[in-house]
Amino acid sequence: MTTKNTQKSEISGTTKSKKAAEAKDLVGFKRIDGRKVDEIRGPIKAKVGVVDNADGSAMYQQGKTIAIAAVYGPKKMHPQHQQDPERGTLRCNYNMISFSVTERIRPGTNRRSTEISKIMEWALGPVLMIDKYPNKVVDVHVNIIQADAGTRCAAINAAAMALAHAGIPMKNLVSSVAAGKMDKTIVVDLNKKEEDYEEGEGATDIPMTFTPDGKLTHLQLDGKINKKQLMEAIELGKKACKEIYEVQKKALKEIGEE
Amino acid sequence: MSEEKHRKIIVPGEVIVKGDEYLPGEGTEKKGDEIVALKYGLAEESNKLIRIIPLSGGYQPRRGNVVIGKVELITFNGWVIDINGSENAFLPLTEVPRYVNKNELEDVMDINDAVVVKIWGINKRGIDLSIKSRGLGKIDEGIIIEVNPNKVPRVIGKEGSMINLIKEETGCNITVGQNGLIWIKGDKVEKELFAKKAIEFVTQKSFISGLTEEIKKWFEEEKK
Fold first, then answer.
1. Model pTM?
2. Residue ranges per domain, chain B?
3. Residues of B in Cβ contact (< 8 Å) with A162
4. ipTM of the complex
């Protein structure tokens, strides 16, 4: 989009160059879907208690990405050789449903989902207090029923709510969001189109997870970025996580008032 | 301050109250001069002690709870019983007040039999059960229904007011297990089903205040 506008301004000549500069400025700040750089996707919806059979469950939607998390346990770890006699174990399972994307994906675990499951365990682990459940396991199953980038963040957000709903002792909730770099602009909460952005320097995706008091529990980086911009991106993500936390908190408080 | 004001829903990590005079109870932690929640639920204050009443989640076995379980396994010296908790509980043979031949344990309680038991103790190895008390023992007749374990206090009511009302109105004998299983025994199946309906009504309307009055009205309407 940026190059397209510069071409246009060259053709139309110097008289309109001021206007074109304004337009270019606008492109720098406005994104493909018209959001501001620090604006997260709407609508953000969160609901607790969506799976009746689970001990705790939650749905989290951000834009077109929807995740459903269900928590079971603490229950006895099976297989027995994986039991930890010193502390409880968190076991996450991330799964993208075959119809979640435009082109059907093969159902079942693959290399990507195994990786994200592990990432979720690392992101949620620091806030969970399951030391007092030796030989036990807390199972978290997350299904992505609709995907439009940022699925791991939606999965972590849903899982955090579901764990709280299951009555698992936690130090805090966690909220997750992805910041990114499109060409040279730092933006927050990328969607699929933005993630596939190829012009200029291309797109860099940085998913991160924060506790409400601003502590980082998970940070990933996919692409190229310099130190200064990375710090900028983290600050942007921190701000967005605060907004997400408010949504999670509200959802948890609403269910109890029913 | 009123009691209502002190009961609000708290999410993990949230500051419940500030002040050095408060003490952290169950599900809470003291951080500096703040009491911070570690669990999701209702925060309640009594005598400066803050504790959290869970609103959801599975059953947490506790010492002294009367529960209803199912015999899962027979061992040489007792029974392993599934009490809907995170682990199975053990009922030793010595709890049975009469002499039992070691090869005939299944005559006392067979696999899949339902029993009313009391949690006698919880230790590292597991949960120990007891049936040496009135009202405990094997269930022979009646129906068992399942409710959400978090709604058991509502079914029982304040000092048993709710459950006594249901007992009176339906003429059934009802035993409520803390793990969410309820045993109803009446002289007719219709009565038992009526009691079941009443309990289901309570669990559905559990969030209403003044529920005992509500259920009284419900009984009047149902009896017409």
1. 0.85
2. 4-54, 66-138, 143-223
3. none
4. 0.81
